[in-house]
């Protein structure tokens, strides 16, 4: 007797096609965009100083991003910024949610300059202070052992230390790092990164820098000067410096916030992280005389 066989692939194909037809594709929907009222903000001087302004956003349940008009930025529903110099400043609040964004602007007027706000020991060491030329240029102290190094993140029981590798004198010649300059201005907290045409970046970031090439374990990359950026110091249990835009200090790891381990008139020692975590980098800099 002749037996009839149904090929297995035919049955499974039909079942698969039926399953596809019975499935309803779900398309994610964006939410409603912020309303104009979500971008409204108020401001007032702090109780302690008329040049320290407190800004309050209308909607605390949305992402609030601030441009303070003095070279600094911030995030949050209630934020503050310092205005040591008299003048008119344009403040911009941009709010975001899954549906879009809205922005609003207001001008504030600071009536009087308050030199005391600039007379901060960290500011003075970093920029030369109110009695200096108005800026200070720093560079990596390549002739000092330990001017560059790496350790674990989070740090071990040894604390902030380049326990995995500490660079000897002139460990990275010709990599595009030693001729860079990092200029901190006191006025409007301006920051200039002078690259002299190239920078040194971690090998995991090479594809983000067109024209980069391998050089002493990491990559040298063409990179323009990053001018008219800003710097911001956050003081607390950890005092940090943050620089804005595409600027960074010393070695590109994908971050732009640096913990101050040591800062004197003639030396700055920084620790900073890595864009993927797990590594903590170290740099020692000195000022140009």
Structural description of this entry:
This protein has 289 residues and is mainly beta. It has two domains: 36-115, Immunoglobulin-like, CATH 2.60.40; 121-287, Lipocalin, CATH 2.40.128. The protein contains three helices and 20 strands. The strands form four sheets. An eight-stranded antiparallel beta barrel has the order 8-11-12-16-17-18-19-20. A four-stranded antiparallel beta sheet has the order 4-3-6-7, with no helix packed on it. The protein has a three-stranded antiparallel beta sheet with strand order 1-2-5, with no helix packed on it. The longest helix is centred in the first third of the chain and has 15 residues, at 8-22. The N and C termini lie far apart (104 Å).
Number of strands: 20
Number of helices: 3
Can you tell me the residue ranges where pLDDT is under 50 for at least 5 consecutive residues? 1-27
The CATH first-level class of the largest domain comes to Mainly Beta
- Give me the side-by-side strand order of the main sheet: 8-11-12-16-17-18-19-20
Largest sheet: 8 strands, antiparallel, barrel
Terminal residue distance: 104 Å
**Any idea how many domains?**
2
Can you lay out the helices and strands and say which pair or pack?
Elements (H helix, E strand, L loop, with lengths): L7 H15 L18 E5 L6 E6 L5 E5 L5 E3 L2 E5 L4 E11 L2 E11 L4 H4 L2 H7 L7 E6 L7 E6 L11 E2 L14 E5 L4 E5 L3 E4 L11 E3 L2 E5 L3 E9 L5 E4 L13 E7 L4 E5 L5 E10 L2
Antiparallel strand pairs: 1-2, 2-5, 3-4, 3-6, 6-7, 8-11, 8-20, 9-10, 9-20, 11-12, 12-16, 13-15, 14-15, 16-17, 17-18, 18-19, 19-20
